[in-house]
């Protein structure tokens, strides 16, 4: 299990795809984006265009734990990205966020094959004035800590290049 | 002397506590938080709950240099965190910020025992629209540079994990 | 060619100057700042005060590719910084940004002497509410990825200290 953190447009998705493509396919791509607006639709389209077969895309804007568990046992899985899933979960007022995060961590821990998780590192700026943004930053930070603790490798992507935070370089 | 930088909810406080706890106690915790509102009070309470004896907590929202100098000679000291202290100092219109920063740097340089300083890295975002936030970012960056220059070790905490910027891994 | 990334007040300019000063002078400093307001004027003045002869300063707020190509062949060149140039280009409604970025990357690839590029890493914060800021963040991230791919060294400066992302420590 590898956790790939990076800033906006850091090349983290492309780096993570490269990690998965080192394994024999087909590979499963678990997409968490929800197309709220045109800007997001354009980003989703751009990401999809980079992934021809043997990528199989599964959309999981909400039940990410289930999407990680399902599928052929041992198949390499890429989740892109955790922060979009967290946003969706936080905006769903009916959601039990703590329980969903627990379920996600358990699903990651139980993954039978290579699992690469992509997420935005969002905590290195000034404290946001918006309370929801502050809460999001806190939840994302806590989630990253829990996943990093159980991951075999943690990578921070800067300008498309990996900085190894935990584990070995591939 | 170790400078521990990290983003919001990066696990930097917990990592810093672990560094101090490698030494024989009792340990001194210098807390700089000022409880302006409920959100801050909750954060302070959460941090305190993690620190039973042999931690001795000293509140120093303003005179941090003095708090670092006092106490038994050689006692391990953790300061958490510099950015809250800087915020307090910048909001105090009667303060001579440059003189206080000089005094703080001198107190750190003169520390007789292990000293671990925790601070938020806040400079990796978009330029804030708010002029005070820009000034805070500048002051924090300058303070980190001065302290990093005299520190034996500088660590950037990402997702609870240390990236060594200066010195050796512990 | 070295790409020096860093946050606000991270000491990235000073670190980059140090890299150039390891070579025999005179050195060329390509300044991209445009003095829009007093705050910017103060920053420019502070940066200039650090660079006596043998630094030769060239102002290139817009035609950066040309400024990199001109000058004595093999002269060490420091560009400070790419993010200011990108801001200027994005605010110029008559500009063909994609073509200018291509020209800049080509000029960097063709540099005959040591070339050090300084830029702000701005992608590690919360998604900005401002659409222009989001676009800037995306363009900066893409530019950094392209330059990092062709650079011999990429360095992330934290608190005045270099973290090597690509290549060897100097």
Fill in the keyword field for this structure.
170 residues, alpha/beta, Rossmann fold, 7-stranded mixed sheet, 22% strand, P-loop_NTPase (chains A, B, C), nucleotide-binding (chains A, B, C), cobinamide phosphate guanylyltransferase activity (chains A, B, C)
Structural notes for this entry:
- Chains A, B, C: It holds the Pfam family CobU.
- With 170 residues, chain A is of the alpha/beta class.
- The first copy, chain A, has one domain: Rossmann fold, CATH 3.40.50.
- The first copy, chain A, is built from six helices and seven strands; from the N terminus they run βαβαβαβααβαββ.
- Chain A has helices at 12-21, 38-49, 64-69, 82-91, 97-109, 131-150; strands at 2-6, 27-31, 55-59, 77-80, 115-120, 153-158, 161-166.
- In chain A, α5 (97-109) packs parallel to α6.
- The longest helix of chain A is centred in the C-terminal third of the chain and has 20 residues, at 131-150.
- The radius of gyration of chain A is 15 Å and the shape is globular.
- The mean pLDDT of chain A is 93.
- Chains in contact: A-B, A-C, B-C.
- The interface between A and C is medium-sized, with 23 and 28 residues.
